[in-house]
Design goal:
This protein is α+β, with helices and mostly antiparallel strands. The protein folds into two domains: about 40 residues; about 120 residues, Jelly Rolls. It is about 20% helix and about 30% strand. It is built from four helices and nine strands. Strands 1-2-3-9-4-7 form a six-stranded antiparallel beta sheet, with no helix packed on it. It has a three-stranded antiparallel beta sheet with strand order 6-5-8, with no helix packed on it. A hairpin with a 2-residue loop joins strand 5 and strand 6. Keywords: DNA-binding. Pfam families: Cupin_2, HTH_3. InterPro entries: Cro/C1-type_HTH, Cupin_2, Lambda_DNA-bd_dom_sf, RmlC-like_jellyroll, RmlC_Cupin_sf, TransReg_Diox_bact_type.
């Protein structure tokens, strides 16, 4: 792909892409996301370590999870305190598994989320209010959810302690 084609796909000027390519400027997070979207590369893949193709990895310690940045993924300011830790390199698999932590009052932002996937999860600790379409539910420890992620949705911790969720998404979204 040419530099001009990349710039057009990313909605950027050719000059901006050229400056980034020559290390004369660093892209903003939104510019980086636009460039990665243009080449169909998720942020998590861009920032993750490459797994050795010759040796499959089946097990991960807690410190090997990949911390994803909610704001880099386009979530709102309310999501800045949310921790999304990904198990392994989602680009190498058809399933993305996340360990999510929402401090009291944290949410996924004012804007409802929508993406091409299916999403499921189980609340491990705390409580969470989840909106899917026009339905709103409060889930407690042990409760779960499963929905088509193309439906507008959002998450909000309405409790007074951290809410921890183990979730899965297919295909990987971030």
């Amino acid at each position: 792909m040419s530099q001009r084609e990349l710039a057009a796909r990313a909605g950027m000027t050719n000059g901006a892409v050229s400056m980034i390519e020559q290390n004369k400027t660093s892209p903003s997070v939104s510019s980086l996301k636009s460039l990665l979207d243009a080449v169909q590369t998720p942020l998590s893949e861009f920032f993750s370590e490459v797994e050795d193709a010759g040796t499959p990895k089946y097990f991960y310690t807690a410190d090997e999870f990949i911390e994803l940045s909610p704001q880099d993924m386009g979530l709102g300011k309310g999501a800045s305190r949310v921790s999304l830790r990904q198990l392994g390199n989602a680009s190498s698999h058809s399933l993305q598994v996340l360990h999510e932590t929402y401090p009291p009052g944290a949410d996924t932002g004012e804007k409802m989320l929508s993406h091409q996937a299916e999403e499921a999860g189980v609340v491990i600790a705390g409580i969470i209010e989840i909106t899917v379409g026009d339905q709103v539910r409060v889930l407690n420890r042990g409760d779960g959810y499963l929905f088509d992620s193309r439906l507008p949705h959002k998450f909000r911790n309405i409790g007074d302690q951290d809410c921890v969720i183990i979730s899965a998404c297919t295909p990987p979204t971030f």
